[in-house]
User: Which sequence fits this backbone?
């Protein structure tokens, strides 16, 4: 808990001292016998939940247990985009809370996560797509979220190198959210971990949960590779492996695990100044501060826990890239990888109590969990602290599939690989 | 990944469309708890880490639905059967999925 | 020996073609090399040592390697639209007129202003940016980030469309051999001799791997000669395909390997019609990985100075390219690799100032060789610091006795040992394991079907590579179903590969680099450990170790070893980061192949396309289909005028539209009617033969999937149509229902979308036109062929056709279908027959206008979240049977009376244009989300009514007829009042279509 406050002055003074004075960003504590709250999963959502639980909701005696190293899940392998350009009323306020938290996050946790509101443009290529984006943009505006409709000339101002003249699906315009952008993903996990640690949260790495102990229908603790740890409340925030962990408590979830691939090119000098998504292919792209083009596309489309995908999807994504911007043809793909997506059956997340007392669930983030990290952590902390859902996340109920209150942004139904 | 279609032979992944879990069974719509049973059928998934019986459609081939048994950790495929035959034999034997 | 002034080219030797000089330029200066050179060897030959600047500190850098692992020597190759940033000079084959520029420097390579970062380096340690630039918050995006972004990145992309093209191909083989060093050549030969189909992929332009860069004797031949002999032998094998300039970059499931062939990169421009590169998907029953090993640098002070090179690379430049990398060398190694370096440099006439080996006792063989060549041996010593800045000028060596010795030199040949190229073994999640005898990671679990031979497996000696290659090549062939044949093995002299690891020189002065390109030094790793970034993945992500364009090929193992040291762990317990494809970077264009611009996706053309082009139609993409959107006539000022004319013509006389794009599914079998009962919400068993019916199908979750008309052509024969957009999805769904849910039903189905050309003819004169086309024996009078009748007929004197009395437009209308091959002829006949009535072709726009006038739902309403009730079609849901989606359609949220339902809208100000996407808000309430009651889905200017009309979803819509509400369109800055009306604007009683 010996966290220093970071600043330019601190960097200079440490430099002059040969950098000998820096402290670990987080401790490496041994697990205590019991905690008030244990969060399973040291990813972005779990660490954020612990941070807000301690800082905002005043809960002490919290542990985050992580089977590998913190940030090893999707917070460390996504394409770093943040946005709140959602359509449905169950989603917009939640993602907008997230955006607002992003906007003050670095000052809040005193860590530069390089939040960069460079804007995001979703391109449309037909009248029908335009109308759908207008509907979405209006929904955003009615929720007080920024949205702007661009025609082709407007898109060209931001992205002059797109293929405007010879595109199989001509670019008609785009929906732009200026406040969207990118964040240095790993730094989010580290910033929350450091902040949580400073609040006294025990972050326990290399501690895999092997069982959830229940007594009389109530969860009372977790079995781990480092022994049994008791808890008054247990929050699961292990997207990608939600089904596996929940099954330890006998729960079946409306979730499938799928692989989503992501791609980064060699570093080049500034080229793409915003985030852009292709509306007629599976392709989106931005450029990192380090210079790499970071891009992605669709799910591979089959259940997988392998954290890697296959060539057809890689080709499909790059074909989309070449259709949209043939100027990247000679830029080289440096690395491609896969993450395990917690694909829920309606494409939207679940933050809720479970049928087991004391066991709480934060899951089903599909491929959109990164942008949700602050709000997800905040709402999960709220739920864990107060036993009721935060007002912006009330739609994310576990029973919505039974009642029919599904939140299906894409309108593809109970087909996770199409969300 | 490559799938050996029982009709067409060994083919590339991009000829196929994935549906999902082949172990769920459409409930009898006449049963008294049909609503709950259909909610389970449509939405609830085992999502196992390991062997998975799953449905694929040979879209760019013979249009057969296939039951593929695959390890979702390694993507190793253990078997491919025509779904129609699997379904018929389940119906004749009354075997549960 | 003395070198010619300005040149390091030896007077003889090397595998270059000295009879073919090649001119090239670097940073605007002209040089000459020879055919067979790489840009790297040619620059070295011209004594150009400073080639690039590092990523962060902008330190001067030269070549350290000779292969694809090169971290420093990266340039911008070519110019204009062909400019390729970050191209490794070691991988560029020299061609006449080659242009290259250094990158990441300003204003010049020699004088780079940002080299000031090197002086600021105490402040710019790993992760410094996470700790600062936070105040004031507003300055991050305005000031700090733009500066960082400009400083970061390496080369510049051209910003222009790539003018070259790329191919993608698939190749099947029994045995794939990756790499053509001694193990690869032997494996390929052994597999080929068994009769297996073999593919041998080599990243380099020539086969041989290290055989080309080393000087060994095999069966009495020099290693390069032996490689050439083996290559010739393999060329002669009928079932061996040799892919030169082809890097296997990734392993995928099911024995699929991704490879990139650089077809034309050794040319100034690709030959006409030749691709620049070709992406291979190689499907192999078995693979032998023989991808050699990569030498490790040693970590000492200023070990990044130009002129400090890997010992193996020094030998390669010498033997393969005839280039001396310096004239006065220090050899600094911790392994017996020293033997060849020392002796070969000496034999080439390069003076060797000292052999520095940290091991207290140098191997006797090496000692003897050095003595023979008169070279000073410093055992138990280490180079602590290199001298010089833009070129190494000397070394400070700590002797075993503790004294410091400074020796001048212009070359330091270093070797920290060899890392097997395990990359491809890890792509399917295998993890390498530590082998302490060679102090390196070797393959652990390998992908199914792969075996690893030679130095890639950790067997570093030539003799082992040959034996192993031969035996694994045979094994692979046997596993692929062939009979192996034994062959005699070539003989080679033994060698020692003994090593004692040296992960860093402890008292080094000056920065000791681990990852050269990304400027990760020992201090950064130490800092990462101190701050808790102890997991290898944290180390990588925090310091950027291994994240440069070389992906840490020379850096990672040193970095891991240092983390192990600082964290006081064994290396095997530190583990490795996950190596991801591609092994070496691949142009995005290669993955795209031909699928770019207009060829991104296939274009489907309806049968009347050619005719529509002749009519001057404007086309629109509908999925992959290209459909006529409208048919402008001269003098019409905009699309609206054209579409209005088309609608008026159809409503007042007759119009024709190609509707072939609708999905068509032929369904037959004794249970066909029962099958339809189960997939549609409405009833089918009572449909008479020769009649069509509108059907709606749901997904199992109770939401509408698709709609369309289905015709009963016989007792056991139905013909279904679907929407254009959902044709494939519905086909797949029906097959699922049949094959998986109800396999006992006697039913078969096939897609017939492509088989039928179908035209809709609409308008009061439609029967007049049809009478001229339909053969006279068919009665199409209203009595004989009423609304929703359908049947098989013949047209134009015996051509088989189907006629359907369907109306999407609301007019008296027919759809006529003929086999696709007659589609073009039929549209021309229709136009001819309709000429006297002024028949007017109409496109998708007019089609859309007329369907909105009639209140028919389409794509904008079938949005994947609407129920049958939402579309006003709830009454179609049969209560007499089960069907897909019935049960879940009864969930509370789906039958909530407050759900938005499709109704019609018209502007209160009739002159006003209305637009889709506007949201509905009750008058008097704030335009905010909590008051949002629905949205406009479809709008059209109705020529029949004379103003704009719309359809949309409105909460409890049908109960609110006549209500005036606000249509809010804030994103377009518009708001207006609309009146809620019936969705059927035109001919509400349906008199016309029955006429």
Assistant:
């Amino acid at each position: 808990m010996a966290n220093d406050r970071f600043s330019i002055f601190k960097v200079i003074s440490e430099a002059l001292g040969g950098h000998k004075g820096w402290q670990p960003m987080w401790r490496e504590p041994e697990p205590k016998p019991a905690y008030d709250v244990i969060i399973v999963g040291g990813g972005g959502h779990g660490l954020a939940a612990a941070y807000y639980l301690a800082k905002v909701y005043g809960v002490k005696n919290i542990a985050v247990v992580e089977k590998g190293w913190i940030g090893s899940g999707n917070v460390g392998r996504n394409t770093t985009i943040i946005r709140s350009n959602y359509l449905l009323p169950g989603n917009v306020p939640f993602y907008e809370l997230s955006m607002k938290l992003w906007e003050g996050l670095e000052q809040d946790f005193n860590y530069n996560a390089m939040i960069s509101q460079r804007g995001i443009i979703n391109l449309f290529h037909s009248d029908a797509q335009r109308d759908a984006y207008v509907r979405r943009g209006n929904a955003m505006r009615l929720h007080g979220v920024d949205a702007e409709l661009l025609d082709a000339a407007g898109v060209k101002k931001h992205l002059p190198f797109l293929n405007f003249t010879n595109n199989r699906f001509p670019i008609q315009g785009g929906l732009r959210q200026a406040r969207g952008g990118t964040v240095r993903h790993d730094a989010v996990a580290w910033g929350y971990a450091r902040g949580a640690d400073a609040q006294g949260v025990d972050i326990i790495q290399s501690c895999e949960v092997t069982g959830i102990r229940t007594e009389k229908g109530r969860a009372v603790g977790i079995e781990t590779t480092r022994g049994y740890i008791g808890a008054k409340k247990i929050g699961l925030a292990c997207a990608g492996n939600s089904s596996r962990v929940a099954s330890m408590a006998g729960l079946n979830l409306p979730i499938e695990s799928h692989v989503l691939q992501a791609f980064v090119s060699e570093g080049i000098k500034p080229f793409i100044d915003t985030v852009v998504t292709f509306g007629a292919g599976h392709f989106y792209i931005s450029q990192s501060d380090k210079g790499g083009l970071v891009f992605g596309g669709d799910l591979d489309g089959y259940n997988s826990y392998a954290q890697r995908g296959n060539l057809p999807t890689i080709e499909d994504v790059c074909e989309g890239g070449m259709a949209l911007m043939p100027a990247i043809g000679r830029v080289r793909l440096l690395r491609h990888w896969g993450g395990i997506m917690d694909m829920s059956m309606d494409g939207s997340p679940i933050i809720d109590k479970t049928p087991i007392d004391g066991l709480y669930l934060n899951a089903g983030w599909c491929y959109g969990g990164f942008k949700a990290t602050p709000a997800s952590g905040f709402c999960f902390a709220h739920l864990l602290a107060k036993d009721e859902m935060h007002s912006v996340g009330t739609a994310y109920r576990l029973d919505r599939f039974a009642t029919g209150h599904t939140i299906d942004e894409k309108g593809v139904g109970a087909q996770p690989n199409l969300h | 990944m490559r799938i050996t279609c029982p009709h067409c032979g060994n083919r590339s992944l991009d000829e196929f469309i994935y549906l999902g879990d082949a172990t769920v069974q459409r409930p009898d719509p006449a049963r008294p708890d049909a609503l709950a049973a259909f909610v389970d059928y449509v939405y609830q998934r085992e999502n196992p880490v390991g062997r998975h019986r799953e449905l694929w459609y040979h879209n760019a081939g013979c249009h057969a639905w296939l039951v593929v048994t695959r390890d979702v950790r390694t993507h190793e495929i253990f078997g491919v059967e025509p779904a129609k035959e699997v379904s018929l034999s389940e119906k004749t034997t009354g075997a549960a999925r | 020996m003395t070198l010619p002034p300005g040149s390091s080219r030896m007077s003889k030797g090397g595998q270059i073609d000295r009879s073919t000089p090649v001119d090239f330029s670097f940073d605007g200066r002209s040089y000459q090399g020879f055919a067979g050179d790489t840009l790297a060897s040619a620059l070295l030959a011209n004594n150009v040592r400073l080639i690039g600047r590092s990523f962060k500190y902008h330190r001067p850098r030269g070549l350290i390697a000779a292969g694809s692992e090169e971290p420093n020597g990266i340039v911008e190759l070519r110019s204009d639209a062909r400019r390729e940033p970050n191209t490794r000079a070691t991988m560029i084959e020299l061609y006449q007129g080659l242009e290259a520029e250094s990158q990441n420097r300003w204003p010049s390579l020699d004088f780079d202003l940002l080299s000031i970062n090197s002086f600021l380096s105490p402040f710019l340690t790993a992760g410094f940016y996470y700790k600062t630039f936070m105040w004031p918050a507003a300055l991050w995006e305005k000031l700090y980030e733009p500066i960082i972004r400009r400083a970061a990145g390496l080369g510049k992309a051209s910003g222009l469309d790539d003018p070259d093209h790329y191919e993608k191909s698939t190749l099947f083989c029994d045995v794939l051999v990756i790499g053509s060093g001694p193990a690869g050549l032997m494996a390929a030969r052994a597999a080929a001799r068994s009769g297996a189909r073999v593919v041998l992929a080599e990243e380099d332009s020539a086969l041989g791997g290290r055989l080309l860069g080393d000087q060994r004797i095999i069966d009495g031949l020099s290693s390069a000669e032996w490689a050439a002999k083996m290559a010739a032998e393999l060329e002669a094998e009928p079932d061996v395909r040799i892919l030169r300039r082809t890097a296997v970059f990734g392993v995928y499931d099911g024995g699929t390997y991704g490879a990139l062939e650089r077809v034309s990169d050794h040319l100034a421009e690709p030959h006409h019609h030749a691709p620049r590169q070709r992406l291979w998907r190689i499907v192999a029953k078995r693979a032998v990985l023989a991808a050699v090993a990569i030498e490790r640098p040693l970590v000492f002070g200023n070990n990044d100075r130009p002129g400090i090179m890997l010992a193996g690379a020094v030998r390669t430049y010498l033997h393969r390219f005839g280039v001396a990398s310096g004239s006065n060398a220090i050899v600094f190694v911790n392994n017996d690799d020293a033997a060849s370096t020392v002796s070969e440099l000496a034999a080439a006439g390069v003076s060797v100032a000292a052999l520095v080996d940290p091991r207290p006792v140098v191997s006797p063989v090496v000692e003897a060789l050095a003595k023979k060549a008169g070279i000073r041996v410093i055992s138990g010593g280490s180079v602590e610091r290199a001298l010089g800045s833009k070129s190494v000028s000397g070394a400070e060596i700590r002797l075993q006795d503790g004294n410091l010795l400074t020796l001048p030199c212009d070359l330091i040949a270093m070797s920290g040992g060899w890392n097997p190229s395990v990359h491809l073994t890890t792509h399917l999640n295998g993890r390498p394991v530590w082998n302490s005898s060679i102090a390196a990671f070797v393959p652990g679990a390998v992908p199914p079907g792969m075996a690893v031979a030679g130095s890639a497996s950790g067997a570093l000696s030539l003799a082992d590579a040959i034996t192993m290659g031969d035996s694994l090549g045979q094994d692979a062939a046997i596993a692929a179903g062939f009979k192996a044949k034994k062959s005699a093995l070539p003989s080679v002299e033994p060698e020692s590969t003994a090593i004692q690891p040296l992960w860093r020189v402890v008292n080094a002065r000056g920065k000791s680099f681990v990852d050269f390109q990304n400027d990760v030094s020992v201090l950064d790793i130490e800092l990462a450990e101190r701050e808790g970034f102890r997991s290898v993945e944290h180390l990588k992500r925090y310091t950027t170790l291994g994240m440069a364009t070389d992906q840490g090929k020379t850096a990672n193992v040193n970095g891991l070893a240092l983390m192990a040291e600082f964290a006081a762990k064994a290396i095997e317990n530190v583990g490795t980061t996950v190596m991801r494809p591609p092994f070496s970077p691949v142009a995005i264009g290669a993955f795209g192949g031909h699928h770019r611009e207009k060829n991104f996706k296939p274009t489907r053309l309806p049968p009347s396309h050619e005719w529509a082009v002749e009519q001057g139609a404007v086309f629109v993409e509908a999925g992959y289909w290209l459909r006529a959107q409208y048919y402008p006539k001269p003098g019409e000022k905009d699309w609206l005028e054209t579409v209005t004319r088309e609608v008026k013509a159809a409503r007042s006389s007759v119009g024709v539209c190609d509707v072939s794009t609708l999905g068509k599914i032929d369904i037959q079998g004794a249970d066909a009617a029962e099958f339809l009962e189960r997939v549609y919400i409405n009833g089918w068993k009572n449909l008479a033969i020769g009649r069509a019916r509108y059907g709606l199908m749901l997904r199992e979750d109770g939401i509408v999937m698709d709609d369309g008309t289905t015709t009963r052509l016989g007792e056991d024969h139905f013909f279904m149509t679907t929407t254009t957009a959902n044709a494939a999805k519905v086909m797949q769904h029906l097959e699922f229902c049949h094959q998986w849910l109800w396999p006992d039903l006697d039913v078969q189905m096939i897609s017939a979308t492509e088989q039928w050309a179908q035209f809709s003819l609409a308008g009061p004169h439609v029967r007049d036109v049809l009478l001229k086309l339909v053969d006279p024996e068919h009665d199409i009078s209203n009595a004989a062929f009423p609304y929703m009748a359908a049947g098989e007929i013949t047209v134009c004197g015996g051509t088989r056709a189907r006629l359907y009395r369907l109306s999407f437009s609301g007019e008296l209308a027919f759809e006529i279908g003929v086999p696709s091959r007659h589609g073009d002829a039929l549209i021309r006949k229709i136009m001819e027959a309709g000429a006297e009535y002024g028949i007017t072709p109409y496109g998708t726009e007019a089609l859309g206008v007329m369907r909105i006038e009639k209140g028919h739902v389409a794509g904008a309403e079938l949005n994947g979240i609407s129920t049958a009730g939402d579309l006003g079609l709830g009454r179609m849901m049969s209560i007499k049977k089960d069907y897909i989606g019935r049960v879940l359609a009864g969930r509370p949220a789906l039958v909530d009376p407050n759900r938005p339902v499709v109704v019609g809208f018209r502007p209160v100000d009739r002159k006003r244009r209305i637009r889709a996407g506007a949201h509905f808000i009750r008058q008097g309430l704030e335009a905010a989300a909590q008051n949002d009651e629905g949205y406009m889905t479809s709008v059209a200017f109705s020529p029949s009514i004379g103003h704009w009309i719309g359809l949309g979803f409105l909460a409890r819509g049908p109960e609110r007829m006549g209500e005036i509400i606000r249509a809010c369109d804030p994103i377009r800055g518009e708001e207006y009042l609309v009146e809620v009306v019936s969705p059927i604007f035109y001919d509400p009683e349906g008199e016309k279509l029955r006429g």
Notes: Residues 83-93 of chain B form the longest helix (11 residues). Chain B touches chain C through 33 residues (CB under 8 Å). The mean pLDDT of chain B is 95. The CA atoms of residues 55 and 67 of chain B lie 5 Å apart.
